[in-house]
Design brief:
Distance between the termini: 19 Å
Largest sheet: 3 strands, mixed
Number of domains: 2
Shape: globular
Helix content: 55-70%
Strand content: under 5%
Radius of gyration: 23 Å
Number of strands: 5
Structural class: mainly alpha
Order of helices and strands: HHHHHHHHHHHHHEHEEEEHHHHHHHHHH
Amino acid sequence: MTEKRTPSEIDFLANNWVEQLAAFYPSFATDIGYPGGEGDMDDHSPEALAKEQVAIKEVLAKLAALEPQDQIDEVTKDAMTASLSQEIQSYDSGLHFRNLNNIASPAQGVRDIFDNSPTATIKDWENLASRMRKVESSLAGYIETLRIGLNAHDAPAKRQVEAVIDQVRQITATDGFFREFAKEAKAENVELPGQLLEDLAEAAEAATDGYEKFGLFLEKELLPGATVEDAIGRERYELLSTRFLGTKVDLDEAYEWGKEELARVVAEQALVAEQILPGASVEEAIAYLEKDPSTKLHGTKALQEWMQQLSDAAVNALSGSHFEIAEPIKKLECMIAPTKHGGIYYTGPSDDFSRPGRMWWSVPVGVTEFDTWRETTTVYHEGVPGHHLQVAQATYVKETLNAWRRLASWTSGHGEGWALYAERLMDELGYLDNPADRLGMLDGQRMRAARVVLDIGVHLGKPRLDGSGTWDFDYALDFMGKNVNMSKEFVKFEVTRYFGWPGQAPSYKIGQRIWEQVRDDYAAKKGDDFDIKLFHKTALNLGGLGLSTLQKAMAQA
């Protein structure tokens, strides 16, 4: 642990803002391990969103009046000003009132908070009964927010509404999430009272009923008025891209770079395919690997155990060599998510590390086999040295960073860009020397390059690569299917995600590009004194930042 910092006025403001956010959003408080609101749900109503906007403007005004005391303050002020300003721009653009997609909207968030809610004690389960009873009101407020967009003829895209309707049907099924969650309730070292079990069952029905009403709204009201056009348009896309990256980029240049990067990765894959099976194409090498029983995992139990073993091995191998990994950070839990929507994601530890960081795999219905050669790089991406190291390290350095820098400041380009940087780093360090594992890493890199092209192409109305018109869903699905080697279910989920969450998917690869530029600039400045371990420590100890702030801070490091 580094020397304790005396908090500045900017630190106090930043810390207070985190407490305000925790009060606004009980799910955020649960995620970071702050006390309070354990039995509550987020308020997604228009009134709550407007109240938050007033608070953001007040914080910005106070922040503008404060003078930084040192470089840490300078970084905080720059990062907070940019982040909060972008929140206001997003709200003013109307995006909050059409905020529904298949992966990262309140439609999922209302359910997702139960994954990280404490379950160890009787009191925890009493809180969860209360929380489930408030699902309906949380969704009711969300419905009112979506109605504003609907009445302004600016509703979410039809494709996204249909995807969420399918997800709601999973939640409200006979064996849906809340019913199974209550049925499997148990505490640590104590038996739950019979009355509490009954309360949980009733609360689960209330939560399920809340989602049923939400589903009816989606089907009967929102779907008929949904936007037919998937593309968000250049003006809004530029706003979202800047928000996800924490810096503004030339989107047309990024589109052309994405095409070049895709071609480069494909060529690299071809060389590796030759190592796996002489004379084989990439597709033939993959087909060969997919028939190899030694790389197969059968069932989610085997998947979870394999992920945990690989993750633990990475932590042990990297600790002390290229990274400083403190003891609390060394624990990472690999989990199979209770949902079946598709996707792999990470949730950070609580502030006191009583709940560790977790890697989650939401396995789609019908998927029962997994290829280790394809997913080795995924474990490095979500775990160490990827998201877990990045997020947990920021959480750990509480002696020098304020709460906002440690717990609330997250920019996709910074976070996901780091995770892709981490994948490539593992290749550089020799952990992907097995050609099959390396092909898996390149498969992931190819996917990230492809979606730079797809995402920008769709939302900016770019011509198709074959010149036959503009990008649409069928063309994007075919394009993506040719550039990734995953199940049809996963590819469809991913493409639907890109169509409904504009600007987020390119932030991975563009973020990686900027991270690599930051390292190259830092190495050039240090010359013979360049130390990659020190580079990683310095960069990660800054916490989550927009990429523009990261570039400025590392230029002074």
